[in-house]
Amino acid sequence: MQSDVLKKKISVRRVGRSPIPHLDDITNHLTAKLEDRLRRLLKATTGAIIMACEVRKLSRVLEDIPVPAMLGIVAVEGVDNYALININSDLVYHVVDLRMGGDPASAPPPTARSFTAIDCALCEGFTSTVIDCMMEAMRSGMGAPLPDAMSLARIEQNITQVRLAPGNADVLVIEVNLDIGEAARSGDFQIVLPLSVLDVLRAEAARAPASNEMLTSLTFWRKHMTRAAAEARIEVSGIVHTQRMTVQELEALTPGDVILMPETALKNIDIRLGRLSDRIDCTTAKLGAFEGRKMLKLTEDPPPDLRSYLESALSIRPDTAPKRID
Description:
Layout: H1 2-11, H2 23-42, E1 46-57, H3 58-63, E2 70-76, E3 82-87, H4 89-99, H5 117-142, E4 150-156, E5 170-180, E6 185-194, H6 195-207, H7 212-231, E7 236-239, H8 247-251, E8 269-273, E9 280-290, E10 293-298, H9 304-313
Antiparallel strand pairs: 1-5, 2-3, 2-4, 3-6, 5-6, 7-8, 8-9, 9-10
Helix pairs in contact: 2-5, 4-5
């Protein structure tokens, strides 16, 4: 019995959280830098869209990669694990065609074929550009002059020849769609970053002093988001009384029936924040009247963890990120 319970717990595929704060800032900077750098590399207008950004198990990610694939193995200074850039076959075709002088105003259908040494060589420049954009995005998003910790180690085509990290490792997967040229050629690629790599980058950011330019840009963005958060409307509910009833009692209810409440109910109203599915207990209040209108008077201070959450959410300090409270 105990062994069965242990097997079930081990088999649960739980994933961790990204250790990098303000991930939305980083992805926004990433798309902007990709559009600028790839426009110069491919000699065509380029649009980048983040399709997904989530933490998954590495084994699940590798299972979904087709063979052959264009895989950029990315070495990270100070870490034994590798990052990965997975370019899908359609995007490989367009990158190779455009870098060899193809017309951005036309969109020939991608041809399914095995990749050659020329394909790999032409995709090395694309992969290195993506790595540079990712590092620049992290510098801008984290507000720290990070060193060039990531570099292209090699290009592989078979995922079975690649070992990035243990299969049960958690990885951050950023899926990007590119729209290239006047004819809107389209292709996707993935950036796969083990969380151990992100831990190293976060530690580097904590040690490195932020530059004035980065602080100015980051502070402006924080102020804008702080103002938006401060003006956001939150649903506030007052719960006078709750009680349990059987299904038979509920079915028997008719207009005019009386549901009794304790005498203290109007003096102990629960104030809750948020929607019905994820409300947070805020404080308690009692019912009263003021200038001919019903009102609630708070009887307790909000909990300290709620206050600290709101303060961190409205903070503009680069090193502060609010943590979810349950």
